[in-house]
Amino acid sequence: MTDALALEPVGKREKTKAANRLAILAAAREVFAQLGYEAATVRDIIRGTQLASGTFYNYFKSKEEVYEALADDGARRFRPILRMARENARSFEDYLHSAFVAYFQFIVADNRTEGRPIDERRPHVLRMDTPEMMAVYQEVRQSLEEAVARGDAPRVDADYLACACIGTAQEVGAEMLRRSPPDIDAAARFVTGLLLNGLQGAARKS
Amino acid sequence: MTDALALEPVGKREKTKAANRLAILAAAREVFAQLGYEAATVRDIIRGTQLASGTFYNYFKSKEEVYEALADDGARRFRPILRMARENARSFEDYLHSAFVAYFQFIVADNRTEGRPIDERRPHVLRMDTPEMMAVYQEVRQSLEEAVARGDAPRVDADYLACACIGTAQEVGAEMLRRSPPDIDAAARFVTGLLLNGLQGAARKS
DNA sequence: GCATGAAATTGACGTAACGTCATTTTTGTG
DNA sequence: CACAAAAATGACGTTACGTCAATTTCATGC
Questions:
Q1: What is the pTM (predicted TM-score) of this model?
Q2: Of the N and C termini of chain A, which has fewer Cβ atoms inside 10 Å?
């Protein structure tokens, strides 16, 4: 019974590796927030950790890769939230609305730290092609395809529709963040109505 | 009468300055396409011109600023096209459709050169607020506000709606570019229908 | 425990890009 | 043609990059 299922790393090797990776990501998050992504250098990130410069390159090979890892982690955290929104939804409209609420809540929570303007630090650009981000895209696309199959939505190009949902969520979300305080539910209602019923739908309850 | 209205630069000074600026922008466009934006360096751009390194810094202070200038130029070229779409439109639906057609034509034309995948040619992070891009945003917003005022569209949050239009156009446009051959009219019909009538509208004629 | 080697860390180093600035060249003007 | 303002030049000091041989840390078998 000494070696139970090792879901989490137990050896010291594995543990420091995980800790270093986390330290780099945390430092990068901070540096991007303070200096902005463009101005930040690999050296700035390294200085934010206790590690030697060479060690950094055992984990990532560039600033871009660090950024990708941050984005990937964000997507990894968001995906189960999205999944639950799908599973708990009592209708298609309900699914759309709760998915948008979830996304808007997510970006609000993800941008609480002080620092540079949000646009300069790190993207919520779902465009990047990290594995987890593609998985999020597929999650969205499948939800929409299922809705079509169930007859909840008309037959449309699922890829275009997924792109439209994601693009709308991103831009409206960014605009929502610029307002204070951000009204998550109003934004979600707007987007849901727009997608379901077009401009007529978007005008509901506003 | 020696000095008539000098709309275009005539002095040699002004002329070489304009030419140098153009040379830098052209070189940058090529370099971004070949190496990708992230990998490109200021020196790479300089090597693509006949200029000395110091000269570059008389015109731009960084790679980011060059990209901004490229983006700004794109917006400057696009704005009159959008304006004409508005003026020539016979209905709101017609305006939306022709505006989207114009945008999709524009991005198709703007990405004809061979090289790296399009996503890599531009910065990942920067959400750019160049003057011309903001002008395009205002142009879109005003068109939508006018439509509301005329009763062509219901009363909605014009900023959110503009964001939704732009976000949708960007994402669907990017997806369209990934397909070959890109079907501009199909994409425009999809987006127009979606915005006007929601999912029901998006399903029309597909 | 202790020996042993694999794995990870370290930081100094050669390379390359950065941005500046004193100098030179070019252009407009009287 | 002379003179000053403007622009171009490229060498230079500085900073960041990414590598790698040396060193330290850890897991494993005895």
A1: 0.89
A2: N
